[in-house]
Amino acid sequence: MSDININILPTESLKKLFGPSCNAVGQATGAIFKFTFSPLIKYNITKQKEFDDLTNGVAEKAGKIPENHLDDSKMNQVLKIIESSQYSISDKNIRDMYKNLISNSLDDRKNRHINNYFSTIISNLSPESAIFLNKLYKNISYTDTFPILQIVKKSNNNDGFTLLSSGEMLISEAYLDVFTLSSFGNYSSILRILKSLGVIEISYEQWLTSKIWQNIYNDIFDNYISKNKLSKDDVSFNRGSVCITDLGKSFMKSVSN
């Protein structure tokens, strides 16, 4: 790295991190940022304004940690998080997750609940899945289980039902702050990603049974067949539920404001 000019990053945020207010913790964090992002900014792989927003956010949050709670015992973890962030900070929501995860890793009141896998989760999120997960988590105080349904169609030999080839999974957008109770969204690919990362759990063996939830299941299905001009003679649905796992809750607590 002898050809890389580390002074390519003369941002106010790095000055704050290198300054005396954050002591060795801030200086180490600033150094990791410099050496990780210098080549990316030099060759225009990362935009300066996105880097500045990330480091400004971390500096601001770190500056609010009482000095007696600043903790340098997790610097290897901070290194991994910053390295994981280097190719995925173009989206604001994902950048905000990194800001919180990095600053919380410097706080001994919070970093005991953070593990190295959290940065892997963020690096595998799309902007859409980050928004979706944030909205699910926002509603966790109201309910930690959400209705989901899977569309099925009659098999060719007419002896039962089989999954649609697309395996569509629909969830009420009412719990994503969108439209009305009867609206729905097809979030199949997002749900599969989040499930594979272990942050949500999807079950078609357990579902919500109260009358209000049954009405929501039926409303989602009715809207689906109307939008797709299908007949109830040809398709049906499996009721299910989706919830944020304990891992997902711990992750979201570490990456949320």
Which key phrases capture this entry?
single chain, 257 residues, alpha+beta, 6-stranded antiparallel β-sheet, disordered N terminus
Number of strands: 6
The proportion of residues forming helix, as a percent range, comes to: 40-55%
Give the overall silhouette: elongated
**Main beta sheet strand tally, sense and closure:** 6 strands, antiparallel
Question: Which oligomerization state do the chains in this entry correspond to?
Answer: single chain
- Kindly, what is the distance between the CA atoms of the first and last residues, rounded to a whole number of angstroms? 35 Å
How are helices and strands ordered from N to C? HHHHHHHEEEEHEHEH
Unreliably modeled segments: 1-6, 177-183
Structural class: alpha+beta
The DSSP helix count reads 10
> How many domains would you count in the coordinates?
2
- Mean of the pLDDT scores? 82
- The Cα radius of gyration reads 23 Å
> What portion of residues belong to β-strands?
5-15%
Task: Describe this protein's structure.
With about 260 residues, the protein is an alpha+beta fold. Helix content is about 50%, strand content about 15%. It has helices at about 10-20, 25-40, 50-65, 75-85, 90-105, 115-125, 125-140, 190-195, 210-225, 245-255, and strands at about 145-155, 160-165, 170, 185, 200-205, 235-245. Helix 2 runs antiparallel to helix 3, helix 2 (about 25-40) runs parallel beside helix 4 (about 75-85) and helix 3 (about 50-65) runs parallel beside helix 5. The chain is elongated. About 30% of the residues are buried.
